[in-house]
Amino acid sequence: MLASNFFGFCKVRSSGANFTYFPCLRSVYGDMDIWCPSPLHGRSFVVGKTENGRYIVSKGNGLSYTQHVFLNTGEFYDDTWGLLLKKDAERDYLIGREVEALGIKTNHMECILELAIDITLPNGHVVKPVLLQYDVECPYRICDAPFMSHEQIFAEISKWQKMNDRGYDSCHMIAANVLIRNLRILHDNNILHNAIHEQNYTWALELLDFELACSPTYPYSKEDDMRHVKELYHREIIQTYVIINYIAGVLRENINFAEVDSLFAEYNFDLKQYVVL
Question: What are the residues whose beta carbons fall under 8 Å from the beta carbon of 159, sequence distance 6 or more?
Fold first, then answer.
């Protein structure tokens, strides 16, 4: 895909001074190449690489599918497909840094850029496109499996042995241990991710996308209360289980539900407390 980068911009936040900034929007008339591993990424693109080989991702540059850059279907205030709102970018950036500091493998936040152009929404509000820029080890999300070759997938999971501190034979159990441990750390710190699914984990098992998250440090505002469903901590257990199932399915591994249930229980997520039949 192509993008235009002839936009003035201001830095809203930055975690360092040595970043290359990519103030670009998707455009058929663009002057720079951007890459999206699959249309399931929605509004994020790979725009470059760091000196140590990590992938630089920019979020909010427009839709990764359809011919159009932004689409507004009018359901939720200023929310617009392909567009990242400033308040959401800041929540993503701040809670992402908080989660990284807890030792969870995640994306490394670089900066937030606000472009110097105005977009008028159907409700009359005028907003400026905001871009969240970060870097990751792996550009592929778990959900990208249908768009990946077997070689690409197995190149990523071959690296999981470094995280296999329990000596599992099956790859989905290596992932299960990482994902469930991540959830335990989040919940022990009263952090609700609020969007745990296969679109928000990479094949390097990096947890991404915190724009819907909340924490004691960054609680929901009154406006957020109107836009987001709260108190979904227990549901995140099931959502994590679904990702484990998805990984096992992609890898054609037989899943032992008793083993997975037992692992959840080890991390104090006992599914028996939710049994109604």
Answer: 204
